[in-house]
Amino acid sequence: MEKISFYDQIERNKRNSYILMLFVVLVIIGIGWVIAQVYEPSSTFVILIFAIIFSLAYTIGTYKKSAEIALKSVNAYPADASRYEHLRNMVEGLSLAAGLPVPKVYIMPSKDINAFATGKDPEHSYICVTEGALTTLTDSELEGVLAHEMSHIRNYDIRFVTLIAVMVGIISIASELFLRSMWFSGGRRRDRDGGNTMILVLGIILAILAPIVVRLVQLSVSRKREFMADAGAVQLTRYPGGLISALKKIKRAYSQGTYTRVNAAVAPMFFEDPMKKRISNIFNTHPPIDERIRVLEAM
Prior knowledge:
Layout: H1 6-38, H2 41-64, H3 66-73, E1 77-78, H4 85-98, E2 104-108, E3 115-119, E4 125-130, H5 131-136, H6 139-154, H7 157-185, H8 197-237, H9 240-255, H10 289-297
Parallel strand pairs: 2-4
Antiparallel strand pairs: 1-2, 3-4
Protein backbone atom coordinates (compact mmCIF):
# COMPACT_ATOMS: atom_id res chain seq x y z
CA MET A 1 0.00 0.00 0.00
CA GLU A 2 1.28 3.47 -0.90
CA LYS A 3 2.47 5.42 2.11
CA ILE A 4 0.39 8.43 3.18
CA SER A 5 1.90 11.46 4.86
CA PHE A 6 -0.10 12.63 7.87
CA TYR A 7 0.57 16.19 6.70
CA ASP A 8 -1.06 15.39 3.34
CA GLN A 9 -3.95 13.65 5.10
CA ILE A 10 -4.58 16.67 7.31
CA GLU A 11 -4.45 19.13 4.41
CA ARG A 12 -6.64 16.94 2.18
CA ASN A 13 -9.39 16.57 4.76
CA LYS A 14 -9.18 20.24 5.72
CA ARG A 15 -9.59 21.22 2.06
CA ASN A 16 -12.50 18.82 1.57
CA SER A 17 -14.23 20.19 4.69
CA TYR A 18 -14.09 23.74 3.32
CA ILE A 19 -15.34 22.59 -0.08
CA LEU A 20 -18.34 20.97 1.59
CA MET A 21 -18.96 24.14 3.58
CA LEU A 22 -18.89 26.16 0.35
CA PHE A 23 -21.53 23.80 -1.03
CA VAL A 24 -23.80 24.55 1.95
CA VAL A 25 -23.31 28.31 1.36
CA LEU A 26 -24.32 27.87 -2.29
CA VAL A 27 -27.46 26.00 -1.20
CA ILE A 28 -28.38 28.91 1.10
CA ILE A 29 -27.90 31.36 -1.79
CA GLY A 30 -29.95 29.11 -4.08
CA ILE A 31 -32.86 28.92 -1.66
CA GLY A 32 -32.76 32.69 -1.16
CA TRP A 33 -32.82 33.28 -4.94
CA VAL A 34 -35.77 30.93 -5.49
CA ILE A 35 -37.79 32.53 -2.69
CA ALA A 36 -37.04 35.96 -4.16
CA GLN A 37 -38.47 34.83 -7.50
CA VAL A 38 -41.63 33.43 -5.93
CA TYR A 39 -42.34 36.22 -3.43
CA GLU A 40 -41.54 39.87 -3.02
CA PRO A 41 -37.81 40.36 -2.34
CA SER A 42 -38.66 42.15 0.90
CA SER A 43 -40.42 39.03 2.14
CA THR A 44 -37.36 36.98 1.30
CA PHE A 45 -35.12 39.17 3.40
CA VAL A 46 -37.50 38.99 6.36
CA ILE A 47 -37.60 35.18 6.17
CA LEU A 48 -33.86 34.75 5.81
CA ILE A 49 -33.03 37.31 8.50
CA PHE A 50 -35.42 35.58 10.90
CA ALA A 51 -33.89 32.21 10.05
CA ILE A 52 -30.36 33.51 10.57
CA ILE A 53 -31.15 35.20 13.90
CA PHE A 54 -33.03 32.18 15.24
CA SER A 55 -30.34 29.71 14.16
CA LEU A 56 -27.52 31.86 15.51
CA ALA A 57 -29.25 32.46 18.86
CA TYR A 58 -30.09 28.79 19.35
CA THR A 59 -26.76 27.37 18.18
CA ILE A 60 -24.51 29.92 19.90
CA GLY A 61 -26.45 29.46 23.14
CA THR A 62 -25.99 25.71 22.89
CA TYR A 63 -22.34 26.17 21.86
CA LYS A 64 -21.51 28.18 24.98
CA LYS A 65 -23.03 25.51 27.19
CA SER A 66 -21.93 22.55 25.04
CA ALA A 67 -19.23 21.30 27.42
CA GLU A 68 -21.47 21.43 30.47
CA ILE A 69 -24.33 19.76 28.60
CA ALA A 70 -22.11 17.01 27.16
CA LEU A 71 -20.41 16.15 30.45
CA LYS A 72 -23.65 16.11 32.43
CA SER A 73 -25.43 14.01 29.80
CA VAL A 74 -22.93 11.15 30.30
CA ASN A 75 -22.65 11.60 34.10
CA ALA A 76 -18.93 12.38 33.79
CA TYR A 77 -16.92 13.21 36.90
CA PRO A 78 -13.56 15.04 37.27
CA ALA A 79 -10.41 12.92 37.12
CA ASP A 80 -9.03 13.13 40.64
CA ALA A 81 -5.38 14.25 40.66
CA SER A 82 -4.20 11.41 42.93
CA ARG A 83 -6.29 8.57 41.52
CA TYR A 84 -5.81 9.46 37.84
CA GLU A 85 -2.34 10.99 37.99
CA HIS A 86 -1.02 8.87 35.09
CA LEU A 87 -3.91 9.86 32.82
CA ARG A 88 -3.52 13.54 33.66
CA ASN A 89 0.22 13.33 32.99
CA MET A 90 -0.47 11.83 29.55
CA VAL A 91 -2.91 14.62 28.72
CA GLU A 92 -0.43 17.24 29.93
CA GLY A 93 2.37 15.74 27.81
CA LEU A 94 0.22 15.75 24.70
CA SER A 95 -0.85 19.34 25.41
CA LEU A 96 2.79 20.40 25.49
CA ALA A 97 3.43 18.56 22.21
CA ALA A 98 0.42 20.26 20.61
CA GLY A 99 1.25 23.66 22.07
CA LEU A 100 -2.14 23.92 23.77
CA PRO A 101 -3.39 24.71 27.26
CA VAL A 102 -3.98 21.56 29.32
CA PRO A 103 -7.65 20.50 29.03
CA LYS A 104 -9.63 19.54 32.11
CA VAL A 105 -9.90 15.76 32.36
CA TYR A 106 -13.14 13.91 33.12
CA ILE A 107 -14.11 10.26 33.46
CA MET A 108 -17.27 8.71 32.04
CA PRO A 109 -18.71 5.76 34.03
CA SER A 110 -18.91 3.22 31.21
CA LYS A 111 -17.22 -0.12 30.56
CA ASP A 112 -17.01 0.63 26.83
CA ILE A 113 -13.85 1.98 25.15
CA ASN A 114 -14.40 5.57 24.12
CA ALA A 115 -13.52 9.21 24.71
CA PHE A 116 -14.53 12.68 23.54
CA ALA A 117 -13.35 16.28 23.60
CA THR A 118 -15.56 19.28 24.19
CA GLY A 119 -15.31 23.00 24.97
CA LYS A 120 -15.71 26.22 23.02
CA ASP A 121 -11.96 26.77 22.43
CA PRO A 122 -8.55 25.40 23.53
CA GLU A 123 -8.58 27.68 26.59
CA HIS A 124 -11.89 26.16 27.73
CA SER A 125 -11.51 22.54 26.67
CA TYR A 126 -12.24 19.17 28.24
CA ILE A 127 -11.26 15.59 27.49
CA CYS A 128 -13.49 12.83 28.81
CA VAL A 129 -12.42 9.17 28.84
CA THR A 130 -14.54 6.14 29.68
CA GLU A 131 -13.60 3.89 32.57
CA GLY A 132 -13.48 1.05 30.05
CA ALA A 133 -10.80 2.82 28.03
CA LEU A 134 -8.65 3.23 31.13
CA THR A 135 -8.91 -0.43 32.13
CA THR A 136 -8.74 -1.98 28.64
CA LEU A 137 -6.26 0.10 26.64
CA THR A 138 -2.49 -0.03 26.95
CA ASP A 139 -0.55 3.22 27.41
CA SER A 140 0.26 3.51 23.70
CA GLU A 141 -3.36 2.83 22.74
CA LEU A 142 -4.71 5.32 25.28
CA GLU A 143 -2.16 7.90 24.16
CA GLY A 144 -3.34 7.49 20.56
CA VAL A 145 -6.97 8.05 21.60
CA LEU A 146 -6.07 11.07 23.73
CA ALA A 147 -3.97 12.51 20.88
CA HIS A 148 -6.96 12.13 18.55
CA GLU A 149 -9.11 14.15 20.95
CA MET A 150 -6.33 16.69 21.42
CA SER A 151 -6.27 17.13 17.64
CA HIS A 152 -9.99 17.92 17.67
CA ILE A 153 -9.25 20.70 20.16
CA ARG A 154 -6.27 21.99 18.15
CA ASN A 155 -8.32 21.98 14.91
CA TYR A 156 -11.18 23.95 16.52
CA ASP A 157 -13.50 21.18 15.37
CA ILE A 158 -16.22 22.07 17.87
CA ARG A 159 -16.33 25.64 16.54
CA PHE A 160 -16.21 24.39 12.93
CA VAL A 161 -19.02 21.91 13.47
CA THR A 162 -21.04 24.63 15.24
CA LEU A 163 -20.70 26.90 12.20
CA ILE A 164 -21.91 24.09 9.94
CA ALA A 165 -24.83 23.50 12.32
CA VAL A 166 -25.82 27.18 12.05
CA MET A 167 -25.77 27.02 8.26
CA VAL A 168 -27.76 23.78 8.20
CA GLY A 169 -30.25 25.34 10.64
CA ILE A 170 -30.72 28.35 8.37
CA ILE A 171 -31.48 26.09 5.42
CA SER A 172 -33.90 23.93 7.42
CA ILE A 173 -35.82 26.92 8.78
CA ALA A 174 -35.96 28.74 5.43
CA SER A 175 -37.16 25.57 3.68
CA GLU A 176 -39.79 24.91 6.34
CA LEU A 177 -41.12 28.48 6.20
CA PHE A 178 -41.24 28.38 2.40
CA LEU A 179 -43.18 25.10 2.32
CA ARG A 180 -45.60 26.25 5.03
CA SER A 181 -46.22 29.53 3.20
CA MET A 182 -47.00 27.55 0.05
CA TRP A 183 -49.44 25.41 2.01
CA PHE A 184 -51.29 28.27 3.71
CA SER A 185 -51.36 30.45 0.60
CA GLY A 186 -52.60 27.64 -1.59
CA GLY A 187 -49.61 28.13 -3.89
CA ARG A 188 -50.39 31.80 -4.58
CA ARG A 189 -47.33 33.90 -5.35
CA ARG A 190 -46.25 37.34 -6.48
CA ASP A 191 -47.13 37.05 -10.17
CA ARG A 192 -50.23 34.86 -10.18
CA ASP A 193 -50.91 35.05 -13.91
CA GLY A 194 -47.50 35.33 -15.45
CA GLY A 195 -45.44 33.74 -12.73
CA ASN A 196 -42.96 31.10 -13.67
CA THR A 197 -44.46 27.79 -12.61
CA MET A 198 -41.15 26.05 -13.15
CA ILE A 199 -39.47 28.29 -10.57
CA LEU A 200 -42.24 27.51 -8.10
CA VAL A 201 -41.84 23.77 -8.68
CA LEU A 202 -38.05 24.16 -8.39
CA GLY A 203 -38.51 26.01 -5.12
CA ILE A 204 -40.70 23.28 -3.65
CA ILE A 205 -38.28 20.53 -4.74
CA LEU A 206 -35.31 22.48 -3.37
CA ALA A 207 -37.09 23.16 -0.08
CA ILE A 208 -37.81 19.45 0.35
CA LEU A 209 -34.42 18.12 -0.68
CA ALA A 210 -32.07 20.84 0.62
CA PRO A 211 -32.37 19.97 4.36
CA ILE A 212 -31.72 16.31 3.58
CA VAL A 213 -28.76 17.04 1.32
CA VAL A 214 -27.09 19.51 3.69
CA ARG A 215 -27.59 17.09 6.59
CA LEU A 216 -25.68 14.48 4.58
CA VAL A 217 -23.03 17.11 3.88
CA GLN A 218 -22.87 17.84 7.62
CA LEU A 219 -22.26 14.14 8.32
CA SER A 220 -19.63 14.04 5.59
CA VAL A 221 -17.83 17.01 7.16
CA SER A 222 -17.91 15.19 10.50
CA ARG A 223 -16.27 12.12 8.92
CA LYS A 224 -13.58 14.30 7.28
CA ARG A 225 -12.74 15.87 10.64
CA GLU A 226 -12.37 12.39 12.17
CA PHE A 227 -9.82 11.43 9.51
CA MET A 228 -8.04 14.73 10.17
CA ALA A 229 -7.96 14.07 13.92
CA ASP A 230 -6.54 10.58 13.29
CA ALA A 231 -3.75 12.11 11.22
CA GLY A 232 -3.21 14.76 13.88
CA ALA A 233 -2.87 12.03 16.50
CA VAL A 234 -0.12 10.38 14.45
CA GLN A 235 1.59 13.76 14.14
CA LEU A 236 1.57 14.18 17.93
CA THR A 237 2.58 10.65 18.91
CA ARG A 238 4.61 9.69 15.81
CA TYR A 239 3.20 6.22 16.32
CA PRO A 240 0.06 5.14 14.41
CA GLY A 241 0.24 1.65 15.95
CA GLY A 242 -1.32 2.72 19.23
CA LEU A 243 -4.36 4.26 17.55
CA ILE A 244 -4.72 1.28 15.20
CA SER A 245 -4.66 -1.16 18.10
CA ALA A 246 -7.25 0.89 20.03
CA LEU A 247 -9.58 0.92 17.00
CA LYS A 248 -9.22 -2.85 16.64
CA LYS A 249 -10.21 -3.35 20.26
CA ILE A 250 -13.26 -1.13 19.76
CA LYS A 251 -14.19 -3.07 16.63
CA ARG A 252 -14.06 -6.34 18.57
CA ALA A 253 -16.26 -4.86 21.29
CA TYR A 254 -18.75 -3.58 18.72
CA SER A 255 -18.86 -6.97 17.00
CA GLN A 256 -20.12 -8.37 20.30
CA GLY A 257 -22.94 -5.83 20.34
CA THR A 258 -21.35 -3.55 22.94
CA TYR A 259 -22.36 0.08 22.42
CA THR A 260 -22.31 3.06 24.74
CA ARG A 261 -25.81 4.36 25.38
CA VAL A 262 -25.64 8.13 25.00
CA ASN A 263 -27.83 10.95 23.79
CA ALA A 264 -27.77 11.14 19.98
CA ALA A 265 -26.88 14.84 20.19
CA VAL A 266 -23.49 14.12 21.80
CA ALA A 267 -22.71 10.90 19.88
CA PRO A 268 -20.76 12.71 17.10
CA MET A 269 -18.30 14.04 19.69
CA PHE A 270 -16.97 10.61 20.65
CA PHE A 271 -13.75 8.99 19.44
CA GLU A 272 -15.86 6.32 17.78
CA ASP A 273 -19.60 6.49 17.16
CA PRO A 274 -21.12 5.03 20.35
CA MET A 275 -24.52 4.49 18.74
CA LYS A 276 -25.58 1.51 16.69
CA LYS A 277 -24.37 1.87 13.10
CA ARG A 278 -26.82 3.05 10.49
CA ILE A 279 -27.81 1.13 7.38
CA SER A 280 -25.44 3.11 5.17
CA ASN A 281 -22.13 4.79 5.97
CA ILE A 282 -23.42 8.10 4.57
CA PHE A 283 -25.67 8.40 7.64
CA ASN A 284 -22.80 7.88 10.09
CA THR A 285 -20.95 10.64 11.92
CA HIS A 286 -17.72 8.60 11.83
CA PRO A 287 -15.91 6.77 9.02
CA PRO A 288 -15.99 2.95 9.13
CA ILE A 289 -13.42 1.60 11.60
CA ASP A 290 -11.83 -0.57 8.90
CA GLU A 291 -11.31 2.48 6.70
CA ARG A 292 -9.73 4.43 9.54
CA ILE A 293 -7.40 1.53 10.24
CA ARG A 294 -6.50 1.21 6.55
CA VAL A 295 -5.55 4.90 6.31
CA LEU A 296 -3.54 4.77 9.54
CA GLU A 297 -1.67 1.65 8.43
CA ALA A 298 -0.58 3.54 5.29
CA MET A 299 1.02 6.34 7.34
